[in-house]
Specification:
Shape: globular
Number of strands: 3
Order of helices and strands: HHEEEHHHHH
Distance between the termini: 31 Å
Number of helices: 7
Helix content: 40-55%
Radius of gyration: 15 Å
Length: about 160
């Protein structure tokens, strides 16, 4: 699977797995999720070794409010760039100037956690409030905001 159209990929996965929960999606796709200390300020990592995909999350380091986003980010690596054993996700890779691979993983995570169904369920709540509730860093909400704006203008 290659994420040329990340929004379409996210929508397909949500339909296929019946959820937008990154832990459940990983399980449905046969991606291992491990919780273990990684050392330093590393939140998580995605690796593929001998065709086995594994997401590693350091629950001791990651702030609880970023857990869901970090897991969705690593899931983005597993789905969008499965053969790229990426650099560790830490506080520095959440920015706009990160590599293309990191940007795709960020976009995937934002679009998964702020998917259309979720936004429709909470129409009276701002995208920024919903993003905060799902651990999405404020500086990344723009990855979904243009879609929200576009659908509002079309409606």
């Amino acid at each position: 699977m290659n994420c040329v159209d990340i929004s379409a990929m996210v929508n397909r996965l949500i339909r296929q797995c019946g959820t937008d929960n990154p832990v459940r999606i990983a399980k449905e796709l046969g991606i291992n999720v491990m919780y273990t200390p990684l050392g330093g300020k590393k939140y998580g990592n995605y690796i593929k070794y001998k065709r086995v995909k594994t997401i590693i999350i350091d629950k001791e380091v990651i702030p609880p409010e970023l857990f869901e986003f970090a897991l969705a980010h690593e899931l983005g690596h597993a789905v969008c760039t499965p053969d790229e054993n990426t650099r560790w996700l830490d506080q520095y890779t959440l920015g706009i100037n990160s590599s293309i691979v990191e940007s795709k993983a960020n976009e995937f995570a934002v679009k998964l956690l702020l998917n259309d169904g979720y936004l429709k369920e909470y129409l009276d709540i701002s995208a920024y409030t919903l993003a905060k509730s799902r651990g999405i860093p404020k500086n990344l909400v723009y990855l979904k905001a243009w879609e929200i704006r576009g659908s509002a203008e079309a409606g």
